[in-house]
C-alpha cells in the first residue's frame, strides 16, 4: 500500500474504523462468503415490532444499514420492518464519497441510502462529518496529516458543506464530530486527530457551526464510545468525566452541540459485574442537565470470553443488552436506541474482530438466518419497560 493512513488505538478497538482506513470496509463479506446468495428464510410473526414498542414510550428505535447490504432483499425486509431510523453505516464515509484526494465527491451511494430510507418511511441519522478515520487505501498520511491549515480547512469544511447541503431537510440528525474525546487530556480533546493538528483546536466548534448553518433543522451530535466499562486503554469513569468537560467547553463557546451520541459497543463477558449502572445513570443525567439529548447510536455486544456453545452465549449477550438498557433508558432525555446492524449476517465484529476459536460472532438481535434471538426479546422488553417520554421525532411511518 505504500505509506498507510494512521490507524489509531481506536481502530484496534473498533475494527470497522480500521478496515475503512485500510480500504477493507464495504466488502459484502460480513457473515457471507463474497458473492454468495443469501438463503431466503421466513421469519416468524413477531407481533409488535421494535419501532412500534419503542414509539409507544416516546423512543425511536433504529439500526445501521449500508447500501450493499440492501442488495439482500430478505435482510432489507427486516430492516424495513423493525426500524424507524437508519444510521448511514458506510455510505457517507470518505472512502465512499472521495476515495482519493483528487476525486470529485461521489454521492451515488448516499443518494441510494436516502432513497431507501424515504421509500420505507424511515428517518436518517447521517455519519460522520468529522472523523479521523473512514478514508480509504487511496489516502496516505501525507494527504491529511501533511496538509497546511489552509488546505486542511478547504478539504474538511468544503466536504462537510457539500454533504450537509445536499441532504438538508432530509436528515433527522448529523453526527458532526466522531471520536474526538481523550480520557488522558485535561481538556478532554484528542491530540492524535488530524483536524486538531492541521485546522487547530477550534475544528469541532467550527464544524458544528457550519453544520447548523447548512441544515438548521437537523439535530447535531457529538458521538463517542467507551463510557460503559473499562478497557485496556481507558477507565470508563475517566472517559465520562472528560466527555462532560468537552461538552461544557463547547457550550461555553455557544457551539450548537445538541446531543451526545453514545456508541454502546458492549462486552458481554461479566458485563453486569463490570458495569457501574448507578454511575452510568448519573453520567446520562449530567449530560441531560446541560440541555442535550442522548442517543444510543451503535449498540452491539462483543462475545469474547463466552463459550462457543450458542445457547449460553446468546443468553449472556441478551443479559448484557438488558442490563445496559435497564440503566440507560431510565434517563428521560435519551431519545433513540440504534443497533449497529440488525442481524449477525452483517456485523463488523465478524469481519474485523473474529473470535479466536473460529465460532461465528453473534452480537445482534437476529442470527445469520434472520431468525430472532434472545437478544431481540431482551431489547424489545427493555424498550417496552422504558419510562415514557416526549418523542424527539416521529418517523413518517408513524403518521
Write structural notes for this entry.
Strand 8 (293-302), helix 14 (310-328) and strand 9 form a beta-alpha-beta unit. The longest helix is centred in the last third of the chain and has 19 residues, at 310-328. The protein starts with 8 loop residues before the first helix and ends in a 14-residue tail after the last helix. The protein has helices at residues 9-13, 15-21, 50-56, 73-82, 94-97, 108-119, 141-144, 149-166, 194-198, 203-214, 236-252, 271-274, 277-289, 310-328, 348-352, 374-385; strands at residues 60-65, 85-88, 123-126, 173-178, 219-224, 259-262, 265-267, 293-302, 334-339. The model is unreliable at 1-41 (pLDDT under 50). It has one domain: Glycosidases (TIM Barrel, Alpha-Beta Barrel). Strands 1-2-3-4-5-6-8-9 form an 8-stranded parallel barrel, surrounded by 5 helices. With 399 residues, the protein is α/β, with parallel strands linked by helices. It is globular and about 55 Å long.
Amino acid at each position: 500500500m505504500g505509506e498507510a493512513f494512521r490507524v489509531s488505538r481506536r481502530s484496534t478497538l473498533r475494527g470497522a474504523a480500521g478496515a475503512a482506513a485500510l480500504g477493507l470496509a464495504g466488502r459484502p463479506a460480513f457473515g457471507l462468503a463474497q458473492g454468495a446468495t443469501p438463503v431466503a428464510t421466513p421469519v416468524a410473526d413477531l407481533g409488535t415490532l421494535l419501532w412500534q414498542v419503542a414509539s409507544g414510550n416516546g423512543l425511536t428505535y433504529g439500526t445501521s444499514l449500508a447500501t450493499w447490504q440492501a442488495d439482500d432483499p430478505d435482510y432489507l425486509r427486516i430492516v424495513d420492518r423493525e426500524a424507524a431510523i437508519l444510521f448511514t453505516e458506510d455510505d457517507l464515509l470518505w472512502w465512499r464519497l472521495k476515495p482519493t484526494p483528487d476525486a470529485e465527491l461521489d454521492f451515488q451511494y448516499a443518494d441510494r441510502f436516502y432513497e431507501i430510507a424515504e421509500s420505507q418511511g424511515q428517518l436518517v441519522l447521517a455519519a460522520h462529518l468529522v472523523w479521523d478515520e473512514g478514508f480509504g487505501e487511496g489516502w496516505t498520511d501525507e494527504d491529511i496529516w501533511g496538509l497546511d491549515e489552509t488546505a486542511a480547512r478547504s478539504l474538511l469544511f468544503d466536504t462537510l458543506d457539500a454533504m450537509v447541503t445536499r441532504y438538508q431537510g432530509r436528515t433527522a440528525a448529523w453526527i458532526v464530530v466522531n471520536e474526538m474525546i481523550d480520557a488522558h487530556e485535561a481538556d478532554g480533546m484528542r491530540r492524535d486527530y488530524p483536524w486538531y493538528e492541521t485546522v487547530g483546536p477550534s475544528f469541532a466548534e467550527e464544524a458544528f457551526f457550519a453544520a447548523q448553518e447548512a441544515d438548521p433543522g437537523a439535530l447535531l451530535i457529538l458521538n463517542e464510545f467507551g463510557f460503559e466499562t473499562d478497557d485496556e486503554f481507558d477507565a470508563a469513569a475517566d472517559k465520562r468525566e472528560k466527555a462532560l468537560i468537552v461538552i461544557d467547553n463547547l457550550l461555553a463557546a455557544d457551539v450548537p452541540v445538541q446531543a451526545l451520541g453514545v456508541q454502546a459497543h458492549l462486552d458481554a463477558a461479566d458485563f453486569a459485574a463490570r458495569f457501574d449502572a448507578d454511575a452510568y445513570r448519573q453520567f446520562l443525567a449530567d449530560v441531560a442537565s446541560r440541555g442535550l439529548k442522548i442517543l444510543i447510536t451503535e449498540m452491539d455486544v462483543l462475545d469474547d470470553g463466552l463459550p462457543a456453545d450458542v445457547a449460553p452465549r446468546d443468553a449472556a449477550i441478551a443479559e448484557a443488552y438488558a442490563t445496559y438498557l435497564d440503566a440507560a433508558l431510565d434517563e428521560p432525555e435519551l431519545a433513540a436506541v440504534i443497533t449497529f446492524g440488525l442481524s449477525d449476517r452483517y456485523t463488523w465484529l465478524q469481519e474485523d474482530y473474529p473470535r479466536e476459536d473460529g465460532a461465528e460472532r453473534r452480537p445482534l438481535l437476529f442470527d445469520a438466518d434472520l431468525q430472532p434471538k434472545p437478544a431481540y426479546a431482551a431489547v424489545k422488553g427493555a424498550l417496552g419497560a422504558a419510562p415514557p417520554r416526549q418523542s424527539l421525532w416521529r418517523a413518517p411511518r408513524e403518521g
